[in-house]
Amino acid sequence: MPRFGLAVVRGRSMEPTLREGDRLLVRYGGQPRPGRIAVVRLPGRPGLSVKRIGRKDVEGWWIERDNPREGVDSWQVGAVGRDAVVAVALGRVWPRPGRLRRRGAGK
Q1: DSSP code of 51?
Q2: Three-class DSSP category at 75
Q3: What is the full per-residue pLDDT of the chain (107 aa) written as tens digits?
Q4: Distance (Å, rounded) from C-alpha 39 to C-alpha 14?
Q5: Listed residue (61, 69, 70) closest to 39, CA to CA
Q6: Residue 84 DSSP SS3
Q7: Is the Cβ–Cβ distance between 104 and 20 less than 8 Å?
Q8: 29 CB neighbour count, 10 Å cutoff
Q9: Rounded to an integer, what distance in angstroms lies between the CA atom of residue 30 and that of residue 11?
Q10: Which terminus of the chain, N or C, has fewer Cβ atoms within 10 Å?
Q11: What is the model's pTM?
């Protein structure tokens, strides 16, 4: 049975798509796909992060931020393993409910 939850966006790394304080409906164990937004564990970093799934390579998933001037992504920490993708975002529920824009892999 799928498990669902909420994730809160912190920081500016996903602007303009997501803003500080946005609440996302997420599905734990959901299938990562290029272009989708996910909750991930970044290597060597505490806590969880909201990032965009890029391509899949032999080391795992390449994850990226939408704002190149803020935050950390695979350009700094490398690919993340499949087990580091905690959940996939289904949509924003607050304060601007709606679907999330999907982007092509690797921007």
Answers
A1: E
A2: helix
A3: 779 999 999 999 999 999 999 999 999 999 999 999 999 999 989 999 999 999 999 999 999 999 999 999 999 999 999 999 999 999 999 998 888 877 764 44
A4: 12
A5: 61
A6: helix
A7: no
A8: 10
A9: 24
A10: N
A11: 0.90
